[in-house]
Amino acid sequence: MTSISGFVEGILDGTIPPEKHEEYLKVVLEESRRLSRMASDMLEMSKMSSSEYKLDMKKFDICETVRLAIISMESKFDSKSLELDVSFSNDQIFVLADKDSILRVIINLLDNAVKFSYENTKIGVSVWCDVHSAYVRVGNFGIGIDQKDLEHVFDRFYKTDKSRGKDKSGAGLGLSMAKNIMKLHNSRIWAESTTAKEGSNVKYTTFTFRLELA
Protein backbone atom coordinates (compact mmCIF):
# COMPACT_ATOMS: atom_id res chain seq x y z
CA MET A 1 0.00 0.00 0.00
CA THR A 2 2.88 2.36 0.77
CA SER A 3 4.46 1.92 -2.65
CA ILE A 4 1.11 2.23 -4.44
CA SER A 5 0.18 5.47 -2.68
CA GLY A 6 3.72 6.81 -3.10
CA PHE A 7 3.74 6.26 -6.86
CA VAL A 8 0.24 7.70 -7.31
CA GLU A 9 1.17 10.79 -5.26
CA GLY A 10 4.34 11.19 -7.32
CA ILE A 11 2.33 11.16 -10.54
CA LEU A 12 -0.27 13.61 -9.20
CA ASP A 13 2.19 16.12 -7.72
CA GLY A 14 4.51 16.02 -10.73
CA THR A 15 7.47 14.40 -8.96
CA ILE A 16 7.30 11.61 -11.52
CA PRO A 17 7.56 13.10 -15.04
CA PRO A 18 4.88 12.33 -17.66
CA GLU A 19 7.22 10.12 -19.70
CA LYS A 20 7.57 7.83 -16.66
CA HIS A 21 3.84 7.60 -15.88
CA GLU A 22 3.21 4.40 -17.83
CA GLU A 23 6.18 2.65 -16.23
CA TYR A 24 5.08 3.48 -12.69
CA LEU A 25 1.40 2.81 -13.36
CA LYS A 26 2.39 -0.73 -14.41
CA VAL A 27 4.12 -1.12 -11.05
CA VAL A 28 1.02 0.18 -9.26
CA LEU A 29 -1.18 -2.26 -11.22
CA GLU A 30 1.03 -5.24 -10.38
CA GLU A 31 1.21 -4.26 -6.70
CA SER A 32 -2.57 -3.88 -6.52
CA ARG A 33 -3.01 -7.31 -8.10
CA ARG A 34 -0.55 -8.77 -5.60
CA LEU A 35 -2.52 -7.24 -2.71
CA SER A 36 -5.73 -8.65 -4.17
CA ARG A 37 -4.19 -12.13 -4.35
CA MET A 38 -2.91 -11.77 -0.80
CA ALA A 39 -6.35 -10.75 0.50
CA SER A 40 -7.97 -13.66 -1.34
CA ASP A 41 -5.41 -16.13 0.03
CA MET A 42 -5.78 -14.81 3.58
CA LEU A 43 -9.57 -15.09 3.33
CA GLU A 44 -9.25 -18.67 2.08
CA MET A 45 -6.83 -19.56 4.88
CA SER A 46 -9.21 -18.03 7.41
CA LYS A 47 -12.01 -20.24 6.04
CA MET A 48 -9.75 -23.29 6.33
CA SER A 49 -9.21 -22.53 10.01
CA SER A 50 -12.95 -22.65 10.65
CA SER A 51 -14.40 -25.82 12.14
CA GLU A 52 -17.18 -25.55 9.56
CA TYR A 53 -14.78 -25.85 6.59
CA LYS A 54 -15.49 -29.11 4.77
CA LEU A 55 -13.49 -30.84 2.07
CA ASP A 56 -15.30 -32.26 -0.96
CA MET A 57 -13.74 -35.72 -0.79
CA LYS A 58 -14.05 -37.66 -4.03
CA LYS A 59 -12.22 -40.33 -6.00
CA PHE A 60 -10.21 -38.92 -8.90
CA ASP A 61 -7.13 -39.61 -11.01
CA ILE A 62 -4.22 -37.62 -9.58
CA CYS A 63 -2.20 -38.17 -12.78
CA GLU A 64 -4.85 -36.41 -14.85
CA THR A 65 -5.00 -33.56 -12.32
CA VAL A 66 -1.23 -33.11 -12.57
CA ARG A 67 -1.47 -33.07 -16.38
CA LEU A 68 -4.14 -30.34 -16.23
CA ALA A 69 -1.98 -28.26 -13.88
CA ILE A 70 1.01 -28.58 -16.23
CA ILE A 71 -1.06 -27.50 -19.24
CA SER A 72 -2.28 -24.42 -17.35
CA MET A 73 1.34 -23.42 -16.65
CA GLU A 74 2.80 -23.86 -20.15
CA SER A 75 3.26 -20.15 -20.85
CA LYS A 76 5.22 -19.70 -17.61
CA PHE A 77 7.51 -22.60 -18.46
CA ASP A 78 8.15 -21.06 -21.87
CA SER A 79 8.91 -17.63 -20.36
CA LYS A 80 12.09 -19.05 -18.77
CA SER A 81 12.82 -21.71 -21.41
CA LEU A 82 12.23 -24.48 -18.88
CA GLU A 83 12.11 -28.11 -19.95
CA LEU A 84 9.69 -30.49 -18.22
CA ASP A 85 10.73 -33.95 -17.07
CA VAL A 86 7.47 -35.71 -16.19
CA SER A 87 7.24 -39.22 -14.77
CA PHE A 88 4.16 -41.29 -13.84
CA SER A 89 4.59 -44.75 -12.30
CA ASN A 90 1.11 -45.65 -13.65
CA ASP A 91 -1.13 -44.14 -16.32
CA GLN A 92 -3.82 -43.67 -13.68
CA ILE A 93 -3.56 -43.41 -9.90
CA PHE A 94 -6.84 -42.85 -8.08
CA VAL A 95 -6.86 -40.97 -4.78
CA LEU A 96 -9.52 -39.88 -2.31
CA ALA A 97 -9.22 -36.13 -1.77
CA ASP A 98 -10.68 -32.69 -2.49
CA LYS A 99 -9.79 -32.31 -6.17
CA ASP A 100 -10.01 -28.51 -6.37
CA SER A 101 -7.78 -27.92 -3.35
CA ILE A 102 -5.22 -30.52 -4.52
CA LEU A 103 -5.13 -28.88 -7.96
CA ARG A 104 -4.43 -25.61 -6.15
CA VAL A 105 -1.50 -27.20 -4.31
CA ILE A 106 -0.01 -28.59 -7.53
CA ILE A 107 -0.31 -25.28 -9.39
CA ASN A 108 1.24 -23.49 -6.42
CA LEU A 109 4.21 -25.87 -6.41
CA LEU A 110 4.69 -25.56 -10.18
CA ASP A 111 4.48 -21.76 -9.99
CA ASN A 112 6.98 -21.78 -7.13
CA ALA A 113 9.33 -23.99 -9.16
CA VAL A 114 9.16 -21.62 -12.14
CA LYS A 115 9.88 -18.55 -10.00
CA PHE A 116 13.02 -20.01 -8.48
CA SER A 117 14.38 -21.96 -11.44
CA TYR A 118 17.45 -20.85 -13.33
CA GLU A 119 16.60 -20.22 -16.97
CA ASN A 120 17.15 -23.07 -19.46
CA THR A 121 16.95 -25.76 -16.76
CA LYS A 122 14.51 -28.56 -16.03
CA ILE A 123 11.48 -28.85 -13.80
CA GLY A 124 10.83 -32.39 -12.64
CA VAL A 125 7.34 -33.69 -11.90
CA SER A 126 6.87 -37.20 -10.53
CA VAL A 127 3.78 -39.15 -9.47
CA TRP A 128 4.03 -42.61 -7.94
CA CYS A 129 2.37 -44.81 -5.36
CA ASP A 130 2.95 -47.56 -2.82
CA VAL A 131 0.42 -49.90 -1.20
CA HIS A 132 -1.50 -47.19 0.66
CA SER A 133 -0.51 -43.77 -0.71
CA ALA A 134 0.12 -41.70 -3.81
CA TYR A 135 2.94 -39.17 -3.96
CA VAL A 136 3.43 -36.04 -6.07
CA ARG A 137 6.82 -34.35 -6.30
CA VAL A 138 7.83 -31.10 -8.05
CA GLY A 139 11.51 -30.18 -8.33
CA ASN A 140 13.58 -27.36 -9.81
CA PHE A 141 17.20 -26.34 -10.31
CA GLY A 142 18.14 -23.03 -8.69
CA ILE A 143 19.82 -21.43 -5.70
CA GLY A 144 17.92 -23.79 -3.43
CA ILE A 145 16.98 -23.56 0.24
CA ASP A 146 19.41 -23.73 3.15
CA GLN A 147 18.89 -26.53 5.66
CA LYS A 148 18.06 -24.02 8.39
CA ASP A 149 15.23 -22.64 6.26
CA LEU A 150 13.66 -25.94 5.18
CA GLU A 151 11.55 -26.33 8.31
CA HIS A 152 10.24 -22.77 7.99
CA VAL A 153 9.33 -22.54 4.28
CA PHE A 154 5.71 -23.48 5.08
CA ASP A 155 5.35 -20.75 7.72
CA ARG A 156 2.99 -17.94 6.83
CA PHE A 157 4.77 -14.93 5.23
CA TYR A 158 8.17 -16.66 5.55
CA LYS A 159 10.74 -15.93 2.86
CA THR A 160 14.33 -17.12 2.81
CA ASP A 161 17.20 -14.65 2.69
CA LYS A 162 18.61 -15.38 -0.76
CA SER A 163 17.11 -14.98 -4.21
CA ARG A 164 13.91 -16.70 -3.06
CA GLY A 165 13.41 -13.76 -0.70
CA LYS A 166 13.83 -11.28 -3.55
CA ASP A 167 10.74 -12.53 -5.34
CA LYS A 168 8.11 -9.81 -5.19
CA SER A 169 5.22 -11.55 -6.97
CA GLY A 170 4.12 -13.58 -3.96
CA ALA A 171 3.17 -12.87 -0.39
CA GLY A 172 4.69 -15.85 1.37
CA LEU A 173 1.27 -17.51 1.67
CA GLY A 174 1.25 -20.15 -1.07
CA LEU A 175 3.28 -22.82 0.69
CA SER A 176 1.53 -22.14 3.98
CA MET A 177 -1.81 -22.68 2.26
CA ALA A 178 -0.49 -25.90 0.67
CA LYS A 179 0.50 -27.16 4.12
CA ASN A 180 -2.95 -26.27 5.50
CA ILE A 181 -4.64 -28.13 2.67
CA MET A 182 -2.55 -31.23 3.31
CA LYS A 183 -3.21 -30.97 7.04
CA LEU A 184 -6.95 -30.93 6.32
CA HIS A 185 -6.38 -34.17 4.39
CA ASN A 186 -4.59 -35.65 7.44
CA SER A 187 -1.47 -35.77 5.33
CA ARG A 188 1.77 -33.85 4.91
CA ILE A 189 3.98 -31.94 2.51
CA TRP A 190 7.74 -31.57 2.84
CA ALA A 191 10.71 -29.91 1.14
CA GLU A 192 14.25 -31.08 0.36
CA SER A 193 17.14 -29.18 -1.22
CA THR A 194 20.41 -30.84 -2.23
CA THR A 195 23.43 -29.88 -4.33
CA ALA A 196 22.72 -30.91 -7.90
CA LYS A 197 26.36 -31.64 -8.73
CA GLU A 198 29.48 -31.80 -6.57
CA GLY A 199 31.31 -28.47 -6.61
CA SER A 200 28.30 -26.67 -8.08
CA ASN A 201 26.27 -23.82 -6.56
CA VAL A 202 23.11 -25.18 -8.20
CA LYS A 203 20.69 -27.02 -5.94
CA TYR A 204 17.81 -29.31 -6.80
CA THR A 205 14.85 -28.41 -4.59
CA THR A 206 11.79 -30.64 -4.31
CA PHE A 207 8.38 -30.37 -2.69
CA THR A 208 6.52 -33.63 -2.12
CA PHE A 209 3.06 -34.39 -0.78
CA ARG A 210 1.20 -37.60 -0.03
CA LEU A 211 -2.46 -38.59 -0.55
CA GLU A 212 -4.51 -41.62 0.41
CA LEU A 213 -5.25 -44.05 -2.39
CA ALA A 214 -8.94 -44.52 -3.26
Explain what the structure shows.
- Helices cover 43% and strands 24% of the residues.
- It has two domains: 47 residues; 156 residues, 2-Layer Sandwich (Heat Shock Protein 90), CATH 3.30.565.10.
- It has a five-stranded mixed β-sheet.
- It has eight helices and seven strands, in the order H-H-E-H-H-E-E-H-E-E-H-H-H-E-E.
- The longest helix is centred in the first third of the chain and has 28 residues.
- With 214 residues, the chain is of the alpha+beta class.
Summarize the structure.
Helices cover 43% and strands 24% of the residues. With 214 residues, the chain is of the alpha+beta class.
SSE inventory with pairings:
Blueprint: H1 2-12, H2 21-48, E1 57-61, H3 62-72, H4 74-79, E2 83-88, E3 94-98, H5 99-115, E4 122-129, E5 133-142, H6 147-150, H7 163-166, H8 174-184, E6 189-195, E7 203-212
Parallel strand pairs: 2-4
Antiparallel strand pairs: 1-3, 4-5, 5-7, 6-7
Helix pairs in contact: 1-2, 2-8, 3-5, 5-8
